């Protein structure tokens, strides 16, 4: 055991140094793997009847994005309930949560050793470590006494790492703060630098009363950011009320926002609270706020300025304490310049702007998200396992994802349905043939290449970036001319989001 204590002395020093969060968890797991000589291992956080991977070793990278609900994983449930070391026999009939998720191995882990170490602090489960070996006798020499010591040391290490995580985001941390592990609860699946910066900005503004304007392309997850802002604020115990402004018919928009009294208009058979009142002392999330009419913008501005509203048909003023979080995929300052959005409302909403980066700028987050959505489909179809082929994972990271996270989610769901239709097996593998979007993307790239090759006779070679920008300029200019300067019609013709077209045009100096 001397070697064991030497390992943990080293890890204790590392955990109290300036390591970033990811390094703390990886260091914990690396030490476990070195001490126990296992082929695959995972450090899991326990939260809301779910195990969340914090670090993995020897497992497919998409495991980091998966969420293992106890109700769907009996082995993990056994670890959570036992309160002590759990050894699973090689012939256990309980399905292994990592079946098919070990690279370069067969889809099923036929014979192997598996041990679960629950991590307890003051008799409360905060996490677990799972260790697997391909040799069924690999762990025979490990004594339960030693494993309990390792579990206790790992629990202390995990608690230290989580406390350091809290100290980085808030000034005063108590023991109870461990129940508020925000990074994992908010369901923002990410480890990229761009999203970590966004997480820090969310932490900075969440517990203030400032209005927040969330911007970003369609499908990036603006609603998740709004939810994170609410959950990390002092208003978390109060309602978060959602309103999609783009789906509001003009005739009922004012009533939806501010409510109405009985008889205010045909069909108003009783008094009704609007979204502002429903969100009193809580948060109102106005999605696609750029779609509101100018008349309604003026009324919204008054509510923000004075904190009072009037129901439709009522002369009385009602005081509300509602925090506003707004979101849009439009470039609002350009809408202000064009006269379609009030400048005073824009400045009132964007006290603290947050920009959600597109998926193509989030490093390998696409792999984590693919794992997350795949695990959801595994539960939906009651499968034993669902995995992503190595060639597919590579392609996922290369694709541009113009529809962002929403497109990825729909692609995984569609591919799962197609893959399931080809087999009766409860072990599913998603491959390239299940995804038609790559074929379409490659056709578009091929067409662009042919066009560039055709024009290279007349245009000197400027490099790929410059040539691509020249082509984009010509395509946008031609489409804009055909649509008589109408940018919305141009966006539809080019099959591109309007906000993205405005940003691209500005970058290409076309605006």
UniProtKB/TrEMBL annotation:
Domain of life per record: Bacteria
UniProtKB keywords: ATP-binding, DNA-binding, Nucleotide-binding, Transcription, Transcription regulation
The signal peptide stretch is: none
Domain Sigma-54 factor interaction intervals: 188-417
List membrane-spanning regions: none
User: Sorted alphabetically, which NCBIfam families does this protein's record hold?
Assistant: PRK05022.1
Its name, as the record gives it, is Nitric oxide reductase transcription regulator
């Amino acid at each position: 055991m001397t070697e064991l204590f030497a390992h943990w002395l080293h890890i204790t020093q590392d955990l109290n140094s300036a390591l970033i969060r990811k390094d703390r968890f990886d260091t914990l797991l690396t030490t476990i793997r070195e001490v126990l000589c296992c082929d695959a291992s995972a450090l899991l956080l326990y939260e809301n009847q779910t195990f969340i991977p914090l670090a993995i070793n020897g497992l497919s990278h998409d495991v980091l994005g998966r969420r293992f609900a106890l109700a769907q994983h009996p082995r993990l449930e056994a670890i959570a309930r036992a309160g002590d070391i759990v050894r699973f026999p090689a012939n256990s009939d309980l399905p292994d949560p990592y079946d098919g998720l070990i690279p370069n191995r067969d889809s099923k882990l036929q014979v192997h050793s598996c041990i679960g170490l629950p991590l307890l602090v003051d008799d409360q489960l905060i996490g677990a470590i799972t260790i697997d070996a391909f040799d069924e006798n690999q762990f025979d020499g490990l004594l339960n006494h030693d494993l309990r010591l390792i579990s206790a040391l790992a629990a202390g290490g995990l608690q230290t790492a989580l406390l350091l995580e809290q100290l980085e985001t808030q000034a005063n941390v108590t023991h109870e703060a461990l129940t508020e592990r925000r990074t994992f609860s908010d369901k923002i699946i990410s480890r990229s630098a761009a999203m970590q910066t966004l997480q820090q900005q969310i932490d900075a503004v969440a517990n203030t009363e400032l209005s927040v304007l969330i911007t970003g392309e369609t499908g990036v997850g603006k609603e998740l950011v709004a939810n994170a802002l609410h959950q990390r604020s002092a208003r978390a115990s109060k309602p978060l009320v959602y309103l999609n402004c783009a789906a509001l018919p003009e005739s009922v928009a004012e009533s939806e926002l501010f409510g109405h009294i009985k008889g205010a208009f045909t069909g108003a058979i009783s008094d009704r609270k609007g979204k502002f009142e429903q969100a009193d002392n809580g948060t109102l999330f106005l999605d696609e706020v750029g779609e509101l009419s100018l008349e309604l913008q003026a009324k919204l501005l008054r509510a923000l300025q004075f904190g009072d509203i009037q129901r439709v048909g009522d002369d009385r003023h009602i005081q509300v304490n509602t925090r506003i979080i707004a979101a849009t995929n439009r470039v609002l300052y350009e809408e202000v310049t064009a006269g379609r959005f009030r400048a005073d409302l824009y400045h009132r909403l964007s006290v603290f702007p947050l920009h959600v980066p597109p998926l193509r700028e989030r490093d390998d987050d696409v792999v984590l998200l693919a794992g997350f959505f795949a695990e959801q489909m595994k539960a939906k179809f009651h499968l034993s396992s669902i995995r992503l082929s190595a060639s597919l994972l590579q392609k996922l990271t290369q694709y541009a994802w113009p529809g962002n996270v929403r497109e990825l989610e729909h692609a995984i769901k569609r591919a799962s349905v197609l893959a399931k239709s080809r087999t009766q097996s409860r072990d599913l593998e998603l491959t390239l043939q299940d995804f038609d979007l790559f074929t379409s993307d490659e056709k578009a790239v091929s067409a662009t290449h042919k066009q560039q090759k055709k024009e290279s006779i007349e245009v000197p070679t400027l490099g790929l970036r410059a040539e691509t920008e020249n082509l984009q300029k010509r395509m946008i200019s031609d489409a804009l001319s055909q649509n008589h300067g109408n940018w919305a019609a141009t966006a539809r013709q080019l099959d591109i989001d309007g906000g993205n077209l405005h940003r691209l045009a500005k970058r290409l100096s076309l605006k």
